[in-house]
Design a protein that fits this description.
Blueprint: H1 3-33, E1 39-44, E2 57-61, E3 64-68, E4 80-84, E5 89-93, E6 105-109, E7 112-116, E8 128-132, E9 137-141, E10 153-156, E11 161-167, E12 172-180, E13 185-189, E14 201-205, E15 208-212, E16 215-216, E17 219-220, E18 224-228, E19 233-236, E20 254-258, E21 261-265, E22 277-281, E23 286-290, E24 302-305, E25 310-313, E26 316-317, E27 320-321, E28 325-333
Antiparallel strand pairs: 1-28, 2-3, 3-4, 4-5, 6-7, 7-8, 8-9, 10-11, 11-12, 12-13, 14-15, 15-18, 16-17, 18-19, 20-21, 21-22, 22-23, 24-25, 25-28, 26-27
Length: 338
């Protein structure tokens, strides 16, 4: 080999080394920037007193989180409990009066809880009940206006309830219905342009309800929507896979909000149960990954949230049914010891 070739090889080798050093520097910088992924802290709270379970209903009124029904791996359940956020304890309430079930929905109007739909192990259900928080009593209301189903979503304004999507035993659904408590009637709404789905999640920020995730035809759904509670109009937002760095797609997860940010957490990502948590900024229509839930991977969990505080509890990981409970502080640094 002549001197000219030796010089060319030396230059090539030096260029290669320089390229490697640049890539390593970029990687180090990206790791520094990635420290933000660890913002958010999960703090252990009182473990649930009752039977571990997945797929219960949940709703929140003030500083009290209400939860009931679900599946414990052997049986559908009908017991109902309340979690006191301030006192950090659970108390049992009057049993749910309908057929024991899982995958029901719940919403609140005027400090009353409304619970219905679900699955009893054989059939999808369409009955609905109102829970009076003051008297700790239940009474039946008009059955759901659409087909009986499980895995639907529910939310509410100050005076009205809304229920939609789900699986009716034959088909995934995309219809939405409004419940009017004064007349005890259901009215079908129009205007939702999203895909059919079951086991989706929602969160509410001020007068807007954000809907996403869920599964249909074996695929986790990518579309993401916002519903204006004042106008009852739907509007599409950026898809949940709009950015290659997003891994938000899932089903059987939970949604909640704290302040002016929304969150999707846990659920089945298509590769098994997860613990990841994603934060949504409505002013930018963008997502950021936060600290993972510190418990076991899970799906079919519940969330209690009142706008300023949020708790994630219960669920299952494979055949393991869970009873743990943690509060999320989105702007704190992770502390695995609390």
């Amino acid at each position: 080999m002549n001197e000219k070739n030796d010089i060319s090889l030396s230059k090539g080798f030096l260029s290669f080394v320089a390229l490697v050093m640049i890539l390593m520097l970029c990687y180090a910088c990206s790791n520094d920037d990635g420290d933000d992924d660890n913002i958010g802290n999960w703090v252990d709270r009182s473990v649930f007193n009752g039977t571990p379970r997945s797929g219960p209903f949940a709703f929140t009124v003030g500083n009290m989180g209400y939860m009931g029904t679900g599946f414990d791996g052997d049986d559908r359940l009908s017991d109902v409990w309340v979690y006191d956020m301030e006192g950090n304890f659970w108390a049992q309430l009057a049993d749910f009066p309908g057929t024991p079930r899982s995958s029901a929905v719940a919403f609140t109007i005027n400090n009353n809880g409304y619970v219905g739909l679900g699955y009893d192990g054989d059939d999808e259900l369409g009955d609905f009940y109102r829970y009076n928080i003051t008297t700790n009593t239940w009474d039946s209301i008009s059955p759901f206006g659409g087909s009986a189903r499980r895995g639907a979503v529910a939310f509410n304004s100050a005076t009205l309830g809304y229920v939609g999507t789900g699986f009716d035993g034959d088909n995934d659904k995309k219809d939405f219905w409004r419940y009017e408590p004064d007349s005890d009637t259901w009215l079908e709404l129009v205007g939702f342009g999203g895909n059919k789905r079951r086991d989706a999640a929602t969160f509410t920020i001020e007068n807007n309800v954000y809907l996403g995730t869920g599964v249909s035809n074996g695929l986790n759904q990518t579309d993401f929507w916002v519903f204006d509670l004042e106008t009852e109009q739907w509007r599409s937002l950026l898809d949940l896979d709009d950015d290659d760095d997003y891994f938000i797609l899932r089903n059987n997860g939970v949604g909640f909000s704290i302040g002016n940010r929304g969150y999707f957490a846990t659920g089945d990502s298509g590769f098994g149960a997860s613990v990841d948590v994603w934060e949504y900024n409505p002013s930018t229509d963008l997502w950021e990954e936060k600290t993972e839930y510190e418990g076991t991977t899970r799906q079919g969990a519940i969330a209690f949230y009142n706008g300023t505080r949020a708790f994630l509890a219960l669920g299952r990981s494979g055949n393991l049914y869970l009873d743990d409970n943690r509060e999320f502080f989105p702007n704190e640094e992770e502390d695995e010891d609390d």
